[in-house]
């Protein structure tokens, strides 16, 4: 029996995850409907944008695009999660230190990396690992470690199917169906805490995210995120759909040429939970963690462009006027990555000159921005903080520890800038081959 394409398994899993979260969090369904309407209205009024998205394959993937987020407690959990996502052709890209922004985790994003896989389904999962060493109280730190050591977040069947995929090189359809169902259990919400209410209170006092990671049997998905092409319209439209948005959009300001990532969300649900009974009496409480998020993705910035963005972000007024709001200037100044393609006129012209800028001016080559597929640590922390409730902590004193994260992961995280550079270079090479010349950027 032939193996199911890993991209197809990812498509099935992302749909199952979305269906599950829609059932668990009805507001997520209302958010999806709002995003779909905003996207349709925007495309109807912006023909150039619709043409660009169609030309680059972004239009086909827009409706079903999602990212989710989970929070893990141990190195073993992270390592097994890496192996589970590998079955779906998803790998760890990027390292994010959220401790610097007051959240005691460091993170990566599991996602597909090649262009064909991204076009089929760009599902991503922002995955954070709790840094227990950032819990100040040594007794609480030891208790949290002991609690986490007792749990298994993947079912035995899920582990067996992961091992089978690794051993055989893939999964046939019946096993792929079972794999999706079994791994989905890892991300399901469970309203029963595995600790008593007193321990929960101690964890909550340390940090609300610590309580969220340690208190339950698994890393329930804490949000799913559709992609919009006008996040300001979504933000403005939420109240009319009985959705309370967070106060401000995270990320760059609104621009004619969007860059990187902008995010907003609705407030996290205040949900009832049950603690283990005390003296035979049930104990109940409330927990705040799960919310809905929306994202708008712009162009991926080069190392030079990102350095400029980060410098402007750190400035006293976060004034981004210095970052050009013009695609041609962003390209010529080497601030953003672009995907090149020959035009019909270029293919018919028999061009000889390999100068890219001259070919673009002549209408023989077109350059479209490469979409940013990754995340921003400050924005992620801002979303987390706004939905955890309580007082936000400004920062932890600890340094980023990529080496420790990769040791827990069981391998390196990929460099997202290198991936974008490879995409750009491949498009230049393919365009040159189509035109029968060597292009020089």
Task: Provide the fold topology.
Elements: H1 6-24, H2 26-45, H3 47-55, H4 58-62, E1 66-72, H5 75-86, E2 91-97, E3 105-111, H6 115-120, E4 124-130, H7 138-149, H8 156-168, H9 173-184, H10 197-206, H11 208-214, E5 223-226, H12 231-237, E6 261-266, E7 270-278, E8 281-288, E9 292-297, H13 303-313, H14 327-332, E10 338-342, H15 344-349, H16 356-361, E11 365-369, H17 377-388, H18 402-409, H19 416-435
Parallel strand pairs: 1-4
Antiparallel strand pairs: 1-5, 2-3, 3-4, 6-9, 7-8, 10-11
Helix pairs in contact: 1-2, 1-9, 5-18, 8-9, 10-11
Question: How would you explain this protein's 3D organization?
Answer:
With 441 residues, this protein is of the alpha+beta class. It has helices at residues 6-24, 26-45, 47-55, 58-62, 75-86, 115-120, 138-149, 156-168, 173-184, 197-206, 208-214, 231-237, 303-313, 327-332, 344-349, 356-361, 377-388, 402-409, 416-435, and strands spanning 66-72, 91-97, 105-111, 124-130, 223-226, 261-266, 270-278, 281-288, 292-297, 338-342, 365-369. It has one domain: 2,3-Dihydroxybiphenyl 1,2-Dioxygenase, domain 1 (Roll), CATH 3.10.180. It has a five-stranded mixed β-sheet. A hairpin with a 7-residue loop joins strand 2 and strand 3 (105-111). The longest helix has 20 residues, at 26-45. The N and C termini lie far apart (47 Å).
């Amino acid at each position: 029996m032939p193996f199911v394409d890993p991209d197809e398994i990812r498509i099935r899993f992302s749909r199952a995850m979305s269906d599950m979260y829609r059932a668990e969090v009805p507001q997520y369904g209302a958010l999806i409907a709002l995003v779909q309407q905003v996207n349709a209205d925007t495309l109807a009024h912006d023909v150039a944008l619709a043409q660009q998205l169609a030309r680059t394959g972004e239009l086909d993937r827009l409706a079903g695009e999602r990212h989710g987020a989970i929070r893990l407690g141990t190195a073993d959990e992270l390592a097994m999660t890496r192996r589970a996502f590998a079955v779906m052709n998803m790998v760890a890209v990027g390292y994010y230190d959220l401790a610097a922004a007051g959240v005691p985790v460091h993170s990566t994003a599991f996602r597909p990396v090649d262009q064909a896989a991204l076009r089929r389904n760009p599902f991503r999962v922002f995955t954070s690992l709790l840094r227990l060493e950032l819990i100040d109280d040594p007794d609480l730190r030891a208790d949290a470690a002991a609690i986490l050591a007792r749990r298994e977040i993947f079912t035995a069947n899920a582990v067996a199917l992961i091992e089978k995929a690794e051993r055989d090189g893939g999964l046939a359809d019946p096993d792929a169906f079972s794999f999706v169902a079994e791994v989905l259990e890892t991300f399901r919400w469970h309203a029963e805490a595995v600790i008593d209410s007193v321990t929960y209170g101690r964890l909550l006092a340390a940090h609300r995210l610590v309580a969220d990671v340690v208190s339950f049997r698994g890393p329930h998905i804490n949000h799913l995120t559709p992609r919009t092409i006008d996040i300001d319209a979504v933000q403005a439209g939420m109240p009319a759909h009985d959705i309370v948005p967070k106060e401000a959009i995270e990320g760059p300001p609104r621009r004619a040429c969007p860059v990187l990532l902008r995010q907003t969300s609705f407030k996290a649900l205040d949900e009832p939970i049950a603690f283990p009974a005390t003296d035979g009496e049930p104990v109940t409480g409330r927990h705040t963690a799960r919310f809905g998020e929306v994202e708008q993705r712009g162009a991926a910035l080069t190392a030079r462009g990102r350095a400029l963005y980060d410098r402007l972000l750190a400035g006293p007024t976060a004034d981004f006027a210095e970052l050009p709001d013009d695609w041609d200037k962003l390209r010529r100044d080497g601030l953003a990555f672009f995907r090149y393609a020959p035009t019909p006129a270029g293919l018919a012209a028999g061009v000889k000159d390999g100068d890219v800028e001259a070919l673009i001016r002549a209408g023989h080559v077109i350059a479209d921005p490469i979409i940013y597929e990754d995340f921003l640590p400050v924005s992620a922390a801002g979303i987390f903080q706004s939905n955890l409730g309580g007082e936000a902590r400004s920062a932890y004193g600890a340094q980023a520890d990529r080496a420790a994260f990769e040791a827990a992961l069981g391998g390196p995280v990929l460099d997202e800038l290198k991936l974008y550079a490879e995409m750009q270079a491949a498009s230049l090479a393919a365009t040159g081959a189509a035109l029968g010349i060597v292009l020089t950027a």
